[in-house]
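Need residues for this backbone.
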């Protein structure tokens, strides 16, 4: 039985090795593409995070200035000179 399979395996061995090699190349290229996409996605996430932090800082400075103006108006409403007129 082994003697019958040996010539068949010997003829098919180069094709089997070639198929395994092609599968290895395919999966390597696929993995490399996934790594590039992940790196690209991470760079975009970093940009969005930076923009978000910048927007939050601008928003907090606006909120602070508005709250200061509101507190100033509470202390001395406009047109009343510190007194309410009914």
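Answer:
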């Amino acid at each position: 039985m082994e003697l019958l399979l040996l010539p068949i395996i010997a003829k098919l061995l180069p094709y089997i090795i070639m198929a395994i090699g092609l599968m290895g190349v395919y999966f390597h290229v696929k993995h490399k593409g996934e790594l590039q996409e992940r790196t690209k996605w991470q760079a975009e996430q970093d940009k969005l995070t930076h923009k978000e932090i910048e927007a939050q800082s601008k928003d907090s400075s606006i909120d602070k200035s508005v709250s200061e103006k509101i507190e100033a108006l509470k202390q001395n409403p406009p047109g009343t000179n510190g007194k309410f007129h009914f």
